[in-house]
Write a structure and sequence with these properties.
A hairpin with a 2-residue loop joins strand 8 and strand 9. Helices cover 29% and strands 23% of the residues. It has a single domain, classed as Umud Fragment, subunit A, CATH 2.10.109. The chain is an alpha+beta fold and 264 residues long. The chain has 6 helices and 13 strands. Strands 1, 2, 3, 4, 10, 11, 12 and 13 form an 8-stranded antiparallel β-sheet that branches.
Length: 264
């Protein structure tokens, strides 16, 4: 009996370290998971975020169905004393930016910066001029099938009578406060942005300036690209149908040549 008791004690003593090791492993897994979640939340909040191109306004630079990674950290500077210690960059003319649409509860937009604070911008026969100099725009495309539009192709307008019905009412009321000698003067903290697909872009011509604080970041790379239709995910039914259709035809619809394509 004594020997059996000793053997039982030894067995329990042998099991105890294994149970303790198992509990420690579980704790480590939980801690690792929590750290991963925290880092992921931190990353998507402050550093990088995914974004899908929903429209043709930036074609051919960005296509409907391009999935981007947006660097939110690079344009984070707000004039604080510590900004020069961090890898922030000033927003430059020609940069592509992701920003919150200035009117209503709308998803983020993607456009290209054309005018900076203090710039004077005008469009004459589809050609953009900034501070009296014609802008070199190798990225811009014009569709010859579109008819001439005096508002779209010559901006800013001379008078309220030249406004189009598609212009946001708030912008229509405010625009002429910034027009001087046939040019649009961009105020401090604001940017003038346009789509590369000039005849198919609802941009600053139609709704006004982009506020500095509304800018989310700059797209870095296309991490995935799949053929899609413009606006197919704006309601639940079309979104679900498009998702199922995309999954079923994923290999054939993936634009493999655009994978990991750097954005300029």
């Amino acid at each position: 009996m004594a020997s059996e008791h000793v053997q039982g004690v030894r067995a329990r003593e042998a099991v105890a370290p294994r149970e303790e090791a198992h509990r420690a492993t579980v704790r480590e897994y939980i801690e690792s998971l929590l750290v991963t979640v925290i880092l992921a939340l931190f990353g998507t909040t402050f550093i990088v975020q995914a974004f899908k191109i929903p429209s043709q306004s930036m074609e051919p630079t960005l296509l409907v169905g391009d999935h981007l990674l947006v660097n939110k950290f690079i344009v984070g500077g707000r004039g604080n004393w510590y900004d020069h210690f961090l890898p922030y960059r000033e927003i430059a003319r020609g940069n592509i930016i992701i920003f919150k649409y200035p009117f209503g509860d709308h998803p983020y937009y993607v456009k290209r910066v054309i005018g900076l604070p203090g710039d004077r911008v005008k469009i004459v026969d589809q050609q953009v001029y900034v501070n009296d100099r014609r802008l070199n725009e190798p990225y811009a495309v014009h569709n010859p099938t579109f008819s001439y539009d005096p508002y779209r192709d010559n901006f800013p307008p001379h008078s309220p009578a030249d406004l189009e019905p598609g212009v946001q009412s708030d912008w229509a009321d405010d625009m002429f406060n910034y027009i001087h000698d046939g040019e649009l003067l961009i105020p401090a903290g604001k940017y003038f942005a346009m789509g590369d697909n000039r005849e198919n872009s609802a941009d600053s011509r139609y709704w006004g300036f982009v506020d500095r604080d509304a800018i989310l970041g700059r797209p870095l790379v296309i991490y995935w690209s799949v053929e899609g239709e413009e606006g197919t995910d704006r309601n639940l039914n079309s979104w679900f149908y498009n998702l199922v259709d995309t999954v079923l035809h994923l290999p054939s619809r993936t634009r493999w040549s655009r994978m990991l394509h750097e954005i300029h």
